[in-house]
Amino acid sequence: MTVITRFAPSPNGLLHLGHAYSALFSQDWAKRHGGRFLLRIEDIDFTRTREEYVQAIFDDLSWLGLEWEEPVRRQSRHMDEYHRRLEELKKRGLVYPCFCSRKAIAEHIRRHPDWPRTPEGAPLYPGTCRQLSPEERQERLARGERPAWRLDMKKALASLGARAKTLSWQEEGSGPHGERGRIPADPARFGDVILGRRDIGISYHLAVVHDDALQGITHVTRGQDLFHATGLHRLLQELFALPAPVYVHHPLITDEGGRKLSKRFRDRALSFLRKEGVSPQSIKRLLGF
Hints:
Elements: E1 4-7, H1 17-32, E2 36-41, H2 51-64, E3 73-74, H3 79-91, E4 95-98, H4 102-110, H5 134-142, E5 148-151, H6 153-160, E6 168-171, E7 181-184, E8 194-196, H7 204-214, E9 219-223, H8 229-239, E10 246-250, H9 270-275, H10 280-287
Parallel strand pairs: 1-2, 2-3, 9-10
Antiparallel strand pairs: 4-5, 5-8, 6-7
Helix pairs in contact: 7-8
């Protein structure tokens, strides 16, 4: 098996040291295993994507000395593929339309201070629209209401039968608490997640699972902030009968206060450091490469 890794940034801001670490980590993993390194631009969120950030990604990574295969896959040019995946789940009755506004959901959560949350800290969806009758759903759709499309988690897990109990992934990096080896997947912790967003049509979770399989990614290298989401991704892979890659989660680069770096702070951007005269060799030494 040829090892294939990928670095998949979103062009909604400038790359920072955390992105540099992740890109270098992914390329280094591929090189050490005699494999291939791909770059993917995850630009499905047209409300935040800017073309100047796409070019900045290419410039920053080239400056760091990274090389990748062409052509670079841009998700925005393949929306029809993701919509076909969503339609497949609709036909199988595994997703349902959700007409709830964020305000309505927040109000429900506010009345229940101890409401359960996902591993990432977001409140679980209360399932309001899961209870709607088929007639009411059709009536609201016919009126032109634009829904989000949520995965019916219970139905999705039930559709796997006995496989749902053995759902897991191979971890060759480590989780936030040192988890390694065969990791049990627990997608139910995310509840009825959105797979079809109301604003842009498709969610990150659906698109990334599709693309990793399409591009033959054997090792998904990414930050530990996405460790728990792997359980959800494994569920989607099983639902679509896609191969399961090995996952390699790496530690996050944080600021002096221990917080994950953010694109909001431009003074930490690679382009800013480059203009200040910092060399790519210095960046690599700083990050341990």
